Every structure is written in C-alpha cells, then in structure tokens.
Amino acid sequence: MTGAKKKKKSMLWGKMHTPQCEDIIQWCRRRLPILDWAPHYNLKENLLPDTVSGIMLAVQQVTQGLAFAVLSSVHPVFGLYGSLFPAIIYAIFGMGRHVATGTFALTSLISANAVERIVPQNIQNLTTPSNTSVMGLSDFEMQRIHVAVAVSFLGGVIQVAMFVLQLGSATFVVTEPVISAMTTGAATHVVTSQVKYLLGMKMPYISGPLGFFYIYAYVFENIKSVRLEALLLSLLSIVVLVLVKELNEQFKRKIKVVLPVDLVLIIAASFACYCTNMENTYGLEVVGHIPQGIPSPRAPPMNILSAVITEAFGVALVGYVASLALAQGSAKKFKYSIDDNQEFLAHGLSNIVSSFFFCIPSAAAMGRTAGLYSTGAKTQVACLISCIFVLIVIYAIGPLLYWLPMCVLASIIVVGLKGMLIQFRDLKKYWNVDKIDCETLQQVKIISINNPLVFLNAKKFYTDLMNIIQKENSCNQPLDDISKCEQNTLLNSLSNGNCNEEVSQSCPNEKCSLILDCSGFTFFDYSGVSMLVEAIVPLSLPYDLHVVSMIQVYMDCKGRSVDVLLAHCTASLIKGMTYYGNLDSEKPIFFESVSAAISHIHSNKNLSKLSDHSEV
C-alpha cells in the first residue's frame, strides 16, 4: 500500500513538473537562439562559405576596430578587443544570422564625448608610461578606457532594462526617415572629428552647440599648420579605397573573393612608414605601441557611472536602433524572423560582458553586415570564425602595427561612412512623397481605409491587414462551410482606422484581386506610403492574399498572383506612390471609384457573379 502511494505521488509529481521543464526548455531556446540553430548546423553546406566570410569579416573587424577606437578617443588596441567579445556574445544571444556586431562609428563618437569631457587631452602631459599599468600603457590611456567601458557597461544595463520592460515593441516610432537622418547627421560629425588626423593638425577637442562649425573655423584659422605629407597620404588613401571598393562592387559577380583593400592599405602604409621613418622625418602621427595579448578582466569603474549617463543612453538607443534595422533587413532578405526584445537583450549583454574586457561600446555595422551578405555567409558561425583570426592579430600581428599612420586610419573611417553620407540623396525622395514627413466579387477582397496612415500606425496597419487576409485564406473551404468562414473573418476595429471588408470565396487556381478604397485616407507620411508600396509589390509565394500597407501592399501581392487596385486616391497619394515605388506601368492600379475598379476586373476576368459577404 505504501509503495502504491509512493508511485502515485511520483506520477503526480511528474505531471506537475513536466510542463515546467518544457517551459524552461522553451524559454532557453527563446533566450539563447544559438541552441535553436547550432544543433541543426549543416557542416557540409555551410562551413566553407562561413569560413570564407569569417576571414573577410576578420579583416573588416581589425581595420574598423583600430579606426573606431581612435574615433572613441582611446588607444587603438581597445578596438581589437571590441571586435572580439561583442561578436561572441551576440552569436549566442542574437537572432540576426547575418549581423556583424563589434565596434561602431556612431557609438564610438558618443563615447568619445564622455572620454574627452572627463579625461581631457591637456592632462596627458601629466602622466607617463608605467610598467605597473595594465598592458604597459600610460595612466592617461587607462583613465580614458575606464570612461569608455563605463559608458559601455551602463549602456548595456539600459538595454537589458528595456528588454525587461518589453520596449522592443515600441520601436515602430523609429521610422526609416528618422534612422536615415540620424545616421547621416552622425556620419558628418564623424568625418568632422577625423579632420585633424587627415590634415596632420594638432587640434583641441571641440564639442557642444555649434561645435561642428567651430572645428572648421579652427581649421581655416590655422591652415598653415597643416602637414602636407599627412594631407597627401590621406588623399592617396581615400582615392585608393574608393576606387578599389567601387571596382569590387562592380565586378563582385565575376570574382569570388573581393580584395581586402583596407588590410592591404594598412600593411602597405605601415611598411612604408617603417622604411622611410616617417614618424621622425616628417612628423607623422602613428598608432604607436600595441600591447600583445588580452588583459585580465576587470570590473568597470562604478564611481563615474553617474557622469556618463547621458552618453550611455545615447549608446543604448542609437546602437540598438541601428543594429535592429540591420537585423530586420537580414531577416527579410533571408526569410526568417527576429524578436525585437531579444535584440535588446543580445546587445545589452554584449556591452555589459565586453566592458569587463576593456571594450568600447558596440553595435552592428552596416559595412560588415553587407560584407557577410556579399561573401555568402550562412550563420553566425562566420562571426565566430572571424573571432579566431582577430585573436591571432591580438596575440601575434598587433605589435607590428606600431608604424601605421593615423591619417590612414582616418581615411578608412571616412570611406567606411560613404553609405551613410550618400543618404543625403534621400532628402529629395522624402520631400516628393510627403512634405511633412462595398461590393464583393469572387476572388476579390475590398478593404476601406478610413484613417490617416502615418509612422505611428503603419506597422500595426500591416499586421492587422495581414491577419485579416490570412484568416480569409484559411476559409478556402466547401460552400457549406461559408458560415464558419464568415465568423473567422470578423475582426475588431483597427487602431489605425476601421476597415470595411467584404470577403469572398477564393479559388486557389484563379488570380485574385484586392481593392483598397482610399476615400477615407485623409493623411499620410513617408512611412505610411513606403509601407503601402512595399506591401503592394515583391513577395514571391504562391497565391496567398497577404497585405502589408500601401506601396508595400502592392509589391507583396504582385508576386503572389494578386492584382491590387486603389480607388478614390488623392493626387498627392498617387504622386507619392508613383515616386516611391517601381509600379507596373502596363497595368492601371489607380481608379476613380470602387465601381470603376470592379468594372476593370469584370472586363479582365469575366466574373459576373456576386457572393455573400461579411462586414468587418
């Protein structure tokens, strides 16, 4: 009897705890994405492309690490550490399979503001190199990196706090124009900060309101102090970098491996500087001593966290927004999904853990991520492989970079920002789009939009509209099940406005049509129009009525064998959509009324029978 009771108790205990174990496993898989993809990694198909991509990525990580450390006003060696540890942490916790995390120009620039404010350049003469200091660097250099790691640590804590508060869902307010403006403006400031290295000038740190203009005013006032040798070497480096990168881009389909011009330039410049003794002969500023190996971990200084809170918030928000945009682009390109909140956790932990290893603030970079695309990377294994080569540089090659001229590093930074700088051209696009920034036929869906479509509700519009039509797809059933179908398509009023939707029985083998009644579409901005166009043009799945929003709606449905027609469009909407999207000029999509759109469908499809409809 006792044994039976124990057995029964054991069974009850197992039933009580089995769901909990499953929940824990699911939670671990959700919070540690590496557990999801690593067990299914295909060595035969993925290892070779990941290895090639990893080698090319390591070249970018090393060169940009050195350059962005200088941008962050710390010793270049700390950029090498910043190219190593964040990449490892993100590979474990991040969901972007083609996102290259490491040093980043914008976060480095923000960090530099705290470094220069707390440890200004004028105290350098008061410190001397010390053998007792970490890695043999001066106390001045160590004070500066302590400020940078404090920014990184606190920025990571803020990101993790945002993850806990589930603020990833609030990122819809950060639209494409906002990101474009932010990155372009920051890129101009980064270029400005490198002017002193490009010209070989000694310049005090200038910041604050109108600091951008004060820097150039100082340059023109002291134009005679420009070192001609540094200027010529900078110009030569920029020309070589731009020319070779343009050739790589033009012939990327014909050549399997692009030329790592950044690495070649660093090696050539270092060798030339060593052979000609440019440091002493011409007074060129060089990188100097680069310690070998990785120092022991050390906790960030907690006593200065309150002094860097402003920069920490900047690092947390700017780094996350820029990284999330790249992760979302990667997910869309390679057909997988990401969790916005999980990205907060991944980047937060990358900054927190890395700060214990003297790393400057990190984020994903556009150039490195694009490099992973072009070299055929499959997973985050490419980033982990790149870390192996970064380690080799830290332990073996780093000290050989002593003679690398600073003007060459500045040139690499400037050319690397080319993609952000050319975003100035987007101003024309935004201006032309927005100055301020029913019956039912078979195989036809008519949806009425009765509210403005702007950045605040564009993403919600996409999600709700997609849910409506996915529910309708599930209703491709026999006629006697139509009543169930109509119940399934009922939806509460949308946050962005009501949709009067008439749903019909669809035939998978026949081409279907979607009519958007825009008579109540009173106002729109760039985000609304772009969402609409992209949803109206490129998903390449079999028939599946999947609507996103205006231009987005047209592009998505076009590839799904769904014709999209817009009725009651204002002249400004037609102009904005035509300018933004590559719409099909052979087929009319804009009509004066819903009736005109239906008549067009009648003439093309020979449909004359109306079916019952449900109204939402």
TrEMBL record:
SUPFAM superfamilies: SpoIIaa-like (SSF52091)
Membrane topology label: Multi-pass membrane protein
Main location: membrane
Listed Gene3D superfamilies: STAS domain
Domain spans labelled STAS: 434-601
GO term, biological process aspect, one: transmembrane transport
Annotated GO CC locations: membrane
Compartment(s) of residence: Membrane
Entry keyword annotation includes Transmembrane: yes
Keywords from the UniProt entry: Membrane, Transmembrane, Transmembrane helix
Transmembrane segments: 145-165, 203-220, 226-244, 304-324, 344-367, 379-397, 403-421
Family in the record: Belongs to the SLC26A/SulP transporter (TC 2.A.53) family.
Protein name, as recorded: Solute carrier family 26 member 7
Organism from which the protein derives: Papio anubis (Olive baboon)
